[in-house]
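Re: weekly structure request thread

Next one in the queue (393 aa):
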Amino acid sequence: MSTKIVIENLIKIYGKKHIAALKLFREGKTRDEILQSTGNVLGLADVSLEIGKGELFVIMGLSGSGKSTLVRCINRLINPTSGHIYIDGEDIAHVDEKRMREIRLKKISMVFQRFGLFPHKTVAENVGYGLKIRGVDTSHRRQKALETLEVVGLEKWADYKPTSLSGGMQQRVGLARALATDAEILLMDEAFSALDPLTRGEMQDELLRLQKELQKTIVFISHDMQEGMKLGDRIAVMKDGAIVQLGTPEDLVINPVNDYIKGFTEEVNSAQVIRVGSVISKKVSLKIGQDSISSGLKKMLNHNLQFIYVVDDQNKPIGLVKKKNLESSLKQGKEDIKTIMETDFPIVDTYTCLEDIFYLYKQGFPLAVIDEKKEFQGMVKAVDVLTSLGEPN
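Done, posted below.
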């Protein structure tokens, strides 16, 4: 994945004495000490991160953590006090306002928490508003608006006013407006937090569907860990203007760096976050054409296995054998694994969530785990899953 956004040593201080406050920060003073000495608030405390092209990157934190300040610095609705913000290699933290307007028109769109729709304009006019500012003529604006509304399932509502729509539908209009400009980057600041829980879940699913199709670079702000875990390829958790931990949802659940992160993740359903690839217990296998029944039994005894998978010469699983069948066949003088190999076995890829695999254990077999190339990565027993979910942070 190539890098789309790079943020380096970003600092934001609110207040008139920002130079003095910046000096104190660089001397190692805390946020509270800076506030007490200068009356200024440290909004961002030396933030550095990279966001990949096509990544859905979530920034989380409690109120006052700096998450909204950070996303607003990315499109310069807030000007940073110090540091750099690179978009496609261009440091937009230090461009003039004319260039910044061009960047906002062409590269960055924003979806707001409260929809931000014009009540006197139709849905189609709202969606086409960014194109109007860009100077696109009326007929092309209308065409693009209708095409984008179709993407979010609202083409039939094009000529209605926003007040005729439900909250979820209005947020879809806001999302369509952001998409209509074909901006490469979407900034979404608490975009779904004003919605009821059911509609919020539907909008999360809609965003994931659209992202799979459009592959935008999305920076999504949220205070809800369940939402962040569901949406984010990676998550940055902030506190007091700084990033406390940055990683995949799985990283945060399995390896929280401190009690603050533990507190954030303790209510998360781990089965929806932890991936199969993290709980593989045994990687040993038998290779067709190389291993015999006797060598296979030896491997199983060495690794204390009751089941073992058989792979072909491309390391793809093609069957499973049971220890008791190997022992029985060996007594009969057989050596061909194919004669006792079962070909109806459960298989799953490394990226599948644990919640989605429970039903596969109905056959009583461990699961064969494969990667994106369909190659065997190991197996996962039911006890491995239960152990991983039972371990406290």
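The chain has 15 helices and 16 strands. Residues 127 and 173 are 7 Å apart (CA to CA).
Next request, please.
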